[in-house]
Request: fold
Amino acid sequence: MTGSSVLVLGIETSCDETAASVVARDADGRGTIRSNVVLSQIDDHAAFGGVVPEIAARAHVEALDRVVQAAMDEAGVGFADLDAVAATAGPGLIGGVIVGLTTAKALALAAGKPLVAVNHLEGHALTARLTDGVAFPYLLLLVSGGHTQILLVRGIGEYERWGTTIDDALGEAFDKTAKLLGLPYPGGPAVERAASRGNPDRFALPRPMAGRPGCDFSFSGLKTALRVEAEAVAPLSDADVDDLCAAFQRTVTAVVRDRVGHALDRFRSEFPDITEPVLVVAGGVAANKALRAGLDAELSARGFRLIAPPHALCTDNGAMIAWAGAERLALDMVDDLSAPARPRWPLDQLAAPMIGSGQKGAKA
Ligand code: KG4
Ligand code: ZN
Reply:
């Protein structure tokens, strides 16, 4: 069922981006982004080397009204034109989630529109349907500062978590590596730049979980191994930092390839009739070129297509929330105004709880 054409405002405030967007979804399920306003708080948190929840919540309160207004203005619509108001209701830093969800409830009530309480992870999971019209089922690799998961996306609201990190998220591992080596926050881009100059063969790092069955990840042992190597050669020269980053990046790429490889095999055996299987990659770490190249190689060797939405739609944004809201609205999956803000909210309710999964914590 596709439903009729809808126009949805989406609000995202679960971490350090204050974002709002208006998205249209036509009766055939095609989406159009009418506006997508993202205000990053990176500068507010940089001095602390990670996201500080109290600072984030206050910054969302200060910015959200004008971000929403900017999204409405850019789309050229008024609240009466909307078919629904969607907001991230979790998982995430609870102060920020409450700011966005409460604002969405107030707007929905005032305009007499339905509310859609969206799971942030569902927003990431469905973005590839907005950008590329990907059909169900498909695999999602979500690699951000707060999440590292491999999900089977069967349909709207139908997710199976096949793998997750048992400790740090991959983006967090990049950020902690950067901090350890004296590189600026956010660490991912800084580590990638340093790695491009470094020699990946100089330091041998362990590849946690690689070769083990299943699709789970672990990065905390790698962080410790990196610290030991760094301490052994300290004080660090620029070349040492470059080499350590190159080793780190090559190691995490190998680990991700290994874990994803298992998911591809499992997908093949569960869906032998799907001729053009797809893996979608999302989250800020998806910007990493070495990781993307590694994934590309792994997928093409196994006959899978890699879909990576444009960077601005891989990182946190309002369009993914508006789109998830539109997909839900088309199926009449709306929420009432008592919908709770949830710090933890795994997409796959049946998956065993795992430390570090299903929640975006402070990255410091
Ligand atoms: O999805 P995102 O913008 O925010 C959330 O965490 O939800 O992801 C941010 C994370 C940070 O940990 C950042 O260091 C990492 O993505 N990142 C990268 C790169 N660009 C951003 N990691 C590796 N390489 C990059 N080029
Ligand atoms: Zn996210």
Summary: The beta strands are 6-12, 17-25, 31-40, 84-90, 115-119, 138-143, 148-155, 158-164, 278-282, 305-307. The chain has two domains: 6-132+312-346, 138-309. The chain has eleven helices and ten strands. The longest helix spans residues 238-270.
